[in-house]
Amino acid sequence: MIYISKIRRNIWPLYVHPLPDELFSSWICRLANNHRVSPEILINESLNKKSPIKININNIDIEPEPNIIDIITKNTPIKIEELTKLFLTDYESNIVENNIPEEILFSLLFLNINDPKKSKRRIVFCPNCLAKGTPYFRKKWMLTTSIVCCECKSYLIDHCPSCYKPFSYWNSNKNSIQINYSITTCKCGCDISKFSFPFRSSKLEIDYQNYIDFTINNGFNDHTQYSFTYLNVLIFTASMIKNIIKASRNKKKLFKVYPDVIMDIKVPSNKWTLSDRQHLLPIAFYLLQDFPNRIRYVFPKKYNLKREFGQLPYWFEKELLYR
Ligand SMILES: [Zn+2]
Ligand SMILES: [Zn+2]
């Protein structure tokens, strides 16, 4: 601990500030790495071993946990407003219809890569971004709708390119002091920031990602004033593509509008892998462009995925109902 007279308290000595759009778990790992310990040891260090706090890595980034927030604000100069920005709940009204806690959480689960109750989270990243300056992991990469990095024109990935296992920077070593631990090193020893895709993402994928990023950052787009309704419709449309191709008549129509559909994705939307999403979401985005023409042409008269999605917004559903 060192005493900082400006803020009149003792803080952890090797403080680092969060970087733009950084995810909480990424920041706390970098902070703990600086102190050569695991995040769990760093957080529990000031509790003198009285009822230690256990960290659940599967939902650590979703919403701030009061005990952990309290310890961090006591031991670092970070302001509470800066700290809450590191969590996914900070997206708030830009991804939800009603800005109430249950809705925010529901939307986050909907827009999170996995259903945290059923499966372990997978860290998604742009290897090129990790190779620039100080490596850290971004909040926006964790959303279902994120598939490419527009700055690097690179595909996002969710596994180690060397051992093919899900990548995690979370260091849960509870015993020894860490020496030279790097946030980009996989357990197999591979440095994921050294990896580069041999091919770049397509113009449609970049257009898609730019449009989604705009929608989430601004809370609206040219379809709707409520960005969440568009995101809901996008994932609904992507799910419908799987249904559409079951009947050859509909499949032909879809191929007329979008000729390159290769489709073998059978799992429900909360189980889509990153590569399923990289394949389906740009097509759904393309079908929603020139609205409502492509949707009206391609969608079958009967569609029945609503149970998975609840109520669809009227601006979308009326185009399907009145034909
Ligand atoms: Zn990038
Ligand atoms: Zn590996």
Task: Describe the 3D structure.
By secondary structure, the chain is mainly α. It folds into two domains: 2-194, no CATH class; 203-321, no CATH class. It has helices at 24-34, 39-45, 66-75, 80-84, 101-111, 127-130, 203-218, 227-244, 248-257, 274-288, 293-298, 306-309, 314-321, and strands at 2-4, 9-11, 148-149, 154-155. The strands form two sheets. Strands 1-2 form a two-stranded antiparallel ribbon. A two-stranded antiparallel ribbon has the order 3-4. The mean pLDDT is 84. The structure holds zinc ion (ZN) (2 copies).
Short summary:
The protein is mainly α and 323 residues long. It has helices at residues 24-34, 39-45, 66-75, 80-84, 101-111, 127-130, 203-218, 227-244, 248-257, 274-288, 293-298, 306-309, 314-321; strands spanning 2-4, 9-11, 148-149, 154-155. The protein has two domains: 2-194, no CATH class; 203-321, no CATH class.
